[in-house]
Design goal:
The chain is an alpha/beta fold. Helix content is 33%, strand content 18%. The protein has helices at 7-13, 51-54, 63-75, 87-99, 113-130, 151-154, 194-203, 228-240, 297-304, 321-336, 339-354, 383-392, 414-429; strands at 30-34, 37-40, 45-48, 104-110, 138-142, 175-177, 207-212, 216-217, 223-224, 243-247, 276-279, 291-296, 363-369, 372-377, 395-396, 403-406, 431-434, 437-440. Strands 4-12-11-10-7-5-6 form a 7-stranded mixed beta sheet, with helices on both faces. Residues 434-444 have low confidence and may be disordered.
C-alpha cells in the first residue's frame, strides 16, 4: 500500500465536511499523531487545538486505549446486537449508569452523535404514544442550537442562521424560542424564560420534548449561558408535562469543567436531571465512532407500552464491541488522570493568556469555560486563509463563522497551550475587514 498522500485524487473525488467540490478548502495531509501533535506528510508537526472536533481528550495513540482496542479486535471486533450481547457493551453501560444522574438507567448504544439525537427524538415521540397522547409530536428548542446533520437533528438546529436552512420544507418544522442570553457568570434574568413559558402554555398539548445543549451552545456560536436557565427549564417541563432532552455530545466528559455540563446547576440548586441524555464525541476518547442515548425508567416504560411494543430503532453497528472497549478504556483514563485538575489548569491558563485579545481592533469578545477558549471576531473570518496561517505558526486551529476557538486535549502541556494561545492572538490581532470579509495581514 502506498503511504504517500494523493492530494489530487483527494481533491477531485473525496468529500470533506462542509466543503465544495467546485472550490474545495485545502486539506493538509496527516501521516501520524501522538499525544497532542499531528505530524504532517511533509514532516511538520502541529499542536492540535481542536481535539479532532472536541473528541480526542486524551490525545493520540494513548497506549491504554490502543491496547484495549487491539485486545478487542483480536477477540470480537463486531457482532450484531439483535439477540446477542457481549461484555464490552455491558461494562460500558454499567459505567455510564454509574456516572450519570440517578434517573438515567437505560442505555441505547448508537453509531454517532447525530444518530443519538435521532434516537432521543424518536424516544420522546414513542413515549407519548405509550401514554395515550399521540398528538404530542412537536419538539421545542432554542435558537442558536446545533444537534447534528441528519434530518431529524437538522430540524432542531437553529432555523435562521444554522447550516441547514437550505433544505426548506423537507425538514420537519418544530417550535423555537430565543436562545438563552444571560452569560455563564452573570446574574440570571428570570424573564428569559417568559417566552418558553408562553410557548408551553399555548402548545404543550402538542409538544413531546424540549431539547437543548446544556450551558454551552457549541457549533451554534460557542455561547456559554447561565446554568440557572436549565433549572427554570426543568421546572417548566415538569409543570407542562414535557420531556427534557439534554444534548451533551459536545460538552460531556469534562470539557466544561464538570463531568457533564448539567452538573453546573448544582451550585445554584439541585442538579438538573434529563429525561433523555445524548452523549458522544469524547465517549471513546475520539478513537472510534460511538454515541449513547440514555433515558429514565419512565421513558423506557412508556416506549414499551406504545402500540409497537418495542423501541423502533436498531442500527447495524449498534453496541459495536470494539467501540465499547475503547469507551471503557477512555472512561477509566478519565477516572485515573484527574481530569478535573487538568481542565482547571487549562481554564486558568486560557483566562490569563487570552485576556489581552479583547483590546484588539476586530475582536468582539473573549470567553473561556473549562477547556474551551474563544475569541469572537466582529465579522466572519476566511477559514481557508486563517487555517493556513495557523499551520504556518505550527498549530492546528480551525476557525468557523466569526470564531477563533480551541478545545485542546486535556493532556496538553503548558508550553503547547501557550503556543496555541499565542497563535490565536497573532491571527486575531492582524485581521482587518475588507468588503465585509475578514482577512489576515501576514507579517513581512
Amino acid at each position: 500500500m502506498n503511504n504517500s498522500i494523493d492530494f489530487e485524487f483527494d481533491k477531485q473525488h473525496i468529500w470533506h465536511p462542509y466543503t465544495s467540490m467546485n472550490n474545495a478548502l485545502p486539506a493538509f495531509g496527516v501521516a501520524s499523531a501522538k499525544e497532542c501533535l499531528l505530524t504532517l506528510d511533509d514532516g511538520r508537526q502541529l499542536i492540535d487545538g481542536t481535539s479532532s472536533w472536541w473528541a480526542c481528550v486524551h490525545g493520540y495513540s494513548h497506549p491504554t486505549i490502543i491496547q484495549a482496542m487491539q485486545h478487542q479486535l483480536s477477540t470480537l471486533s463486531h457482532v450484531m446486537f439483535g439477540g446477542i450481547t457481549h461484555q464490552p457493551a455491558i461494562e460500558l453501560s454499567k459505567k455510564l449508569v454509574a456516572i450519570t444522574s440517578p434517573k438515567l438507567t437505560k442505555v441505547f448504544l448508537a453509531d454517532s452523535g447525530s444518530i443519538a439525537v435521532e434516537v432521543a427524538l424518536k424516544m420522546a415521540l414513542q413515549y407519548w404514544q405509550g401514554r395515550n397522547q399521540p398528538q404530542k409530536q412537536r419538539i421545542l428548542t432554542v435558537k442558536s442550537g446545533y444537534h447534528g446533520d441528519t434530518f431529524a437533528a437538522m430540524s432542531v438546529c437553529d432555523p435562521e442562521g444554522g447550516m441547514h436552512t437550505m433544505f426548506g420544507d423537507s425538514v420537519t418544522q418544530h417550535e423555537f424560542v430565543s436562545a438563552p442570553q444571560t452569560k455563564f457568570d452573570q446574574t440570571f434574568d428570570t424573564s428569559e424564560l417568559d417566552e418558553m413559558r408562553a410557548k408551553l402554555e399555548s402548545k404543550h398539548h402538542t409538544i413531546a420534548a424540549i431539547i437543548l445543549e446544556p450551558v454551552l451552545q457549541g457549533a451554534g456560536g460557542m455561547r456559554f449561558y447561565s446554568p440557572e436557565y436549565l433549572i427554570g427549564l426543568r421546572k417548566l417541563c415538569d409543570e407542562f408535562n414535557v420531556l427534557l432532552i439534554l444534548d451533551e455530545i459536545a460538552t460531556g466528559f469534562g470539557r466544561t469543567g464538570k463531568l457533564f455540563a448539567y452538573e453546573h446547576t448544582q451550585r445554584h440548586d439541585q442538579i438538573v436531571e434529563a429525561d433523555i441524555l445524548c452523549l458522544g464525541k469524547a465517549l471513546t476518547g475520539g478513537y472510534i465512532s460511538l454515541a449513547v442515548t440514555m433515558c429514565s425508567d419512565e421513558v423506557a416504560k412508556g416506549i414499551s407500552d406504545s402500540p409497537a411494543g418495542v423501541f423502533m430503532h436498531g442500527p447495524t453497528f449498534m453496541g459495536n464491541p470494539l467501540a465499547c472497549a475503547a469507551a471503557c478504556a477512555s472512561l477509566d483514563l478519565l477516572a485515573e488522570n484527574e481530569w478535573q485538575a487538568q481542565v482547571s489548569a487549562i481554564e486558568s491558563q486560557l483566562n490569563d493568556e487570552l485576556a489581552e485579545a479583547i483590546h484588539f481592533p476586530e475582536v468582539k469578545d473573549v470567553r473561556v469555560l473549562g477547556a474551551i477558549g474563544v475569541i469572537e471576531m466582529n465579522s466572519t473570518v476566511n477559514t481557508a486563509e486563517l487555517q493556513q496561517q495557523f499551520v504556518d505558526l505550527g498549530v492546528w486551529i480551525r476557525p468557523f463563522s466569526n470564531l477563533i476557538y480551541i478545545m485542546p486535549p486535556y493532556v496538553i502541556s503548558k508550553e503547547q497551550l501557550s503556543q496555541l494561545t499565542s497563535a490565536m492572538k497573532t491571527v486575531a490581532k492582524n485581521i482587518i475587514v475588507s468588503d465585509h470579509q475578514a482577512s489576515f495581514i501576514s507579517h513581512g
